[in-house]
Amino acid sequence: MEGAGYRVVFEKGGVYLHTSAKKYQDRDSLIAGVIRVVEKDNDVLLHWAPVEEAGDSTQILFSKKDSSGGDSCASEEEPTFDPGYEPDWAVISTVRPQLCHSEPTRGAEPSCPQGSWAFSVSLGELKSIRRSKPGLSWAYLVLVTQAGGSLPALHFHRGGTRALLRVLSRYLLLASSPQDSRLYLVFPHDSSALSNSFHHLQLFDQDSSNVVSPQPEGAASDLPPPPDDEPEPGFEVISCVELGPRPTVERGPPVTEEEWARHVGPEGRLQQVPELKNRIFSGGLSPSLRREAWKFLLGYLSWEGTAEEHKAHIRKKTDEYFRMKLQWKSVSPEQERRNSLLHGYRSLIERDVSRTDRTNKFYEGPENPGLGLLNDILLTYCMYHFDLGYVQGMSDLLSPILYVIQNEVDAFWCFCGFMELVQGNFEESQETMKRQLGRLLLLLRVLDPLLCDFLDSQDSGSLCFCFRWLLIWFKREFPFPDVLRLWEVLWTGLPGPNLHLLVACAILDMERDTLMLSGFGSNEILKHINELTMKLSVEDVLTRAEALHRQLTACPELPHNVQEILGLAPPAEPHSPSPTASPLPLSPTRAPPTPPPSTDTAPQPDSSLEILPEEEDEGADS
Question: Which of 32, 134, 136, 156 is nearest to 81 (CA)?
């Protein structure tokens, strides 16, 4: 069933509505139907219709039942039972059929037009999904809308809840509620929602137009859908995990040039590399050593190579760099007028470079040569990675590298090495960012369930205020020298993958009491997080992050999906292959919905970018 702007992506029969709360359902009270997920125009709809009128798309309205015991469809003699969801929301069709105005035949439900029960709801209107208790004859799902009403419970007599939820997870982030394991909170993660996140969080300036573009088909959430009766492989509901006491961690002094020299053996080959990496992890590098050591940490030079091999590699990479640079340098102005992609990249890069770290002496002043190098390296990267191109935020990642390396070619290849680690952050589907936020939530739920409960109660459980932290690796949260120390520690890959997520956990742990004891609401939480910028101590944060890692790894009952995040266990075999999204070129000419105009017309300096509170909305389900 496909047409212009209309495509059915999921269809399942044998999905019934139970129109009576009787324990034993009459045939007339069961309405068989088909559930579909439909992509229509620019929206995704969940549509249920009776099998006799499967094409009917009549919407439904919701209203509270009259508790006065007025005209009821249920027989007063028939005992009712609790089906596991809230059955006190009457369903009223938009055509408002006379459901029960005629006297029903004894022992039978009144005859109602089945087509009047059809409904269709946009996925963006969903607020939560409740699944049935285990052990019932069949599984059901109850969908709650943002307006607070419940859709009719969908009873899957022939199975299929897992398949439906897997499809929904392509378009929604499903997060288990810490208060109720059967309740899954729904967070949109389509491109327009992410665009709004960029706007609300003020990650960049308000004119950012190419950060998010329409999401490719088939993008899947990192958090698998809730199960029918038992967890799917790779998914575990995080309950109470008993963690041991948090160990004390002492960081060491930075690695000096003399200590580095002791690891250089014959022919200039580095020796005892694991020990050297451990030292960098525990203490960082002295500033005078960074220019050399960063080339190894970022994969530009091989840890196993000799001095001569390094020289030959640098000569080869120098030629390669200037060949790519010549590709855009040789484009004439007339050619560029017919190349909207290159022109868009050039304009965006020039704008971003002019505002990147301008308070740093290396980049200050109107005619600073460092700005020209930033511009040239970023344009050349567009030639190196055509699919990704330039996305706002990359200049933040390049600036410290160029500051340390102070060589155009070497800085370019070190930047490429860094982008290999974080390029997923900038891909159009935003799947990597969604996956990281999901993993951060899992870690925090194990480390501090009470903090998670508090954030959930204040509509902040999605951790969207951490988005900028993860996107550009805390570049705007710490003073410039501290960013250098933080990055070189993270680049060691020790003590395992995803240490940056534990850095985020450490910051939240440090602010835990302030957040919870002050009784902050969602706006105050965002404001407080914003005000942490440039006030954090990188050594304190790294010390706490390492302590959290040790505390987690010492737990013998750590859930498998948390072990995967920490690199302690291989990824579980997926129950069913999820479609993956390919990185697509980000065109500067494609823009998300335009954010509301700002009342502040003066240009904002780079350092003034803040996370701003979101508008008040409905509270989370409990």
Answer: 136
Lowest mean pLDDT among 232-236, 255-259, 341-345, 509-513: 232-236
| CA separation for the pair 595, 207 (Å, rounded) | 8
State the Cα–Cα distance between residues 425 and 420, nearest whole angstrom.
10
pLDDT tens, 550-591?
999 999 989 999 999 999 999 876 544 444 333 333 444 333
Rounding to the nearest 10 degrees, give the CA dihedral for residues 124, 128, 129, 134: 170
Q: Which residues pair with 68 in a beta bridge?
A: none
Distance CA 173, CA 190 (A): 9
Q: Record the tokens describing residue 354, joined without a space.
A: 């002019």
Phi/psi region, residue 442 (left: phi>0; alpha: psi -120 to 50; beta: rest), is: alpha
Cβ contacts of residue 206 below 8 Å, gap of 6+? Answer: 199, 595, 597, 598
Cα–Cα distance for residue pair 399/68, rounded to 1 Å = 69
CA distances for 386 relative to 382, 408, 523, 584, 589, angstroms: 6, 20, 39, 9, 16
Kindly state the DSSP code that residue 253 receives in the 8-state scheme.
Answer: P
| CA of residue 505 relative to chain centroid, distance | 15
Task: Measure the CA–CA gap between 321 and 408, rounded to whole angstroms.
Answer: 9
428/215 Cα distance (integer angstroms): 7
Q: What is the SS3 assignment for 128-162?
A: EEEECCCCCCCEEEEEEECCCCECCCEEECCCCHH
Share of the chain above pLDDT 90, in %: 51
Secondary structure percentages of the chain, helix, strand, coil, to 5: 40, 15, 45
Quick one: tokens of 452?
A: 């998670």
pLDDT digits (tens, 9 = 90+) for 320-368: 999 999 999 999 999 999 999 999 999 999 999 999 999 999 999 888 9
On the 0-12 / 13-18 / 19+ scale of CB atoms within 10 A, 10 is middle
Residue type, 8: V
Dihedral of CA atoms 401, 405, 409, 415 in degrees, nearest 10, equals: -20
Nearest-angstrom CA–CA distance, 466 and 450: 18
Between CA 493 and CA 496 the distance in angstroms is 6
* Predicted confidence band of residue 166 (pLDDT cuts 50, 70, 90): confident
Question: Both tokens of residue 70?
Answer: 């007025």
Q: Which residues of 21-60 are buried (b: 16+ CB within 10 A; e: fewer)?
A: bbeeeeebbbbebbbbbbbbeeebbbbbbbeebbebebeb
Q: Tell me the CA distances in angstroms from 340 to 105, 226, 249, 391, 588, one per residue in order.
A: 71, 44, 53, 15, 8
- Nearest Cα neighbor of 443 from 552, 543, 516 is 552
Instruction: At 96, list the tokens.
Output: 């408002």
CA separation for the pair 502, 506 (Å, rounded): 6
Tokens standing for residue 496: 């395992």
Q: Name the amino acid, one letter, at 84.
A: G
Beta bridge partner(s), residue 144: 128, 150
Summarised one tens digit per residue, pLDDT across range 509-545 is 999 999 998 888 888 999 999 999 999 999 999 999 9
